Structure formats: C-alpha cells, structure tokens
Amino acid sequence: MRPTDCAGPIVVGIDGSTAAINAAHWAIDEAIGRAIALRLVQVVRAEAASTAGGEDDDLATQYAETALHAAHTAILASGRPVKVDTAIRRGDVDLTLIQESRGAAMICVGSVGIGHVASRLLGSSAVALAKHAHCPVAIIRTDGEPPHGKKIVAVVDRYPDSDDVIHHALDEARLRRAPVLALGVRRWKLGGISEQELDRRLGNWLPRYPDVTVDKCITDTATEYRVTRNESIQLLVTGRADANKLSRLIGPHGYALPAYPNCSVLLVRR
What is the C-alpha to C-alpha distance for residues 178 and 126, in angstroms, rounded to an integer? Predict the structure, then answer.
C-alpha cells in the first residue's frame, strides 16, 4: 500500500536547469510505482507575462517550451514506461507551484543547495513548498549518480506525523531497493523520543515491509547526525517540524563538505 491514495500526478517543477531534469528523473520511479502520470510544469513569471508589447512574454514562453521539451526528451530517453504531461503556467512561481500541489500525489523540485537558485525557479520555492504545499514535497539534490548502497533516513519524533514519515521512508526504500535508518531525534533535548518509543512506532510498520532492512539510532537532531556521521544518504524523510530547516538539511550551494553530500529531502505534508 502506497502512503497516499491520491490519484493525482507527480508534479515536477521545471526551470531549464540540470537540477530540475534530475528531479524529473528521480520522479519517474514515483510515477511508475503509483501508476500515475508525471506532470512537468514550467512557470512563466507574472511580470514577464504583463509587459507592454508582449515581447518578454514571448521570450519567456519560448524558454519555457524549450525547457519542457528538454525535460520531456530526457525522460523519454530513459526508456521507462511513464506517462508524461507538460504544462506552462503563468503567475507567481511559489503560489503557482503551491496550487499545483493541490490534488498532486507529490511535488518535486531540484536543488543545488538552498542559498543558490537552480536557475530562477528553485530555492525560495522549495522553502515555500515545504511550508505551504498540500502534498509531500521532494527536494532533489543529486548529481545524477546511481544511489546504490545509500541509505534512506526517516526522522522520527513525537509529532503526530511521524507514522506518515516512517510509512513514506519504508515505501521509498522498497521502491528504490535501499536500506532505512530510523533516526529517533530528541529535538533540542526536549521531549526526546526514547528507544522504546522508537521501537513501538517502527513495530507498527515493519511487518508490512519484511523486504526492507531497517537500522535505528537516537540523536539530538537530523542535522547533528549528518554533521557527525560521514555516511552516504540518498534521501532524508522528515515531517512538518523540519519545514523551516531546509538549508540545514539540504546544505549550502558550492560546499563539498562531508556534512553536505548530495542528499535529497522528502518533506511529508498532509
């Protein structure tokens, strides 16, 4: 059973960047696994659409068409059996993507690190989606290399959405044939989750995923774990409590530090 019964598409924000195409590639498995469409969306900013004479709008539309064609071509080149829809939307980028998240099974954007925008679309939009999207948000930071052997980390705490986080992490692990690390966090050492509580929460789900290898660990925060452990993580799955901490989880642009490897984040929102 997938973590959501939404029949809407997997939406991917496109902006002409390699990061966006990498996000589209990552989303292929999501769409195939759910038997739903992949929807590629390029947003033409409102100011470009409203300029006198329409010249800027024409150029922006041509750019959008080119970017969508490149992303669609890259997906077709994968040879995977996925249905792809494309759309050009006009308006504020953040608000438009939040609107797209309504009825979507998931929305994905690419990132090269918060603090630097992957072209013009991403960065602030990733933060806006994390706070206001109506579905899970995947912020994909990858260099396109195969993630073989890299873990999927589930950030588990006492917040009500922790069960959803575990469910999504286990489902991603099955989909991507990856091991899971259940990371019990104490969050500033207040209201910390105990190992017994972590075991109880995992016990509700592990029998449904006998094919997934799961380890566990207790730490203060997910950021602390990433900084102190030099481990390869392909995806960190977390809940609403981390919506304001994307820059810490994803990492800054342009730093090749062990604390900031290419790690994507799936923020579970309901």
Answer: 25
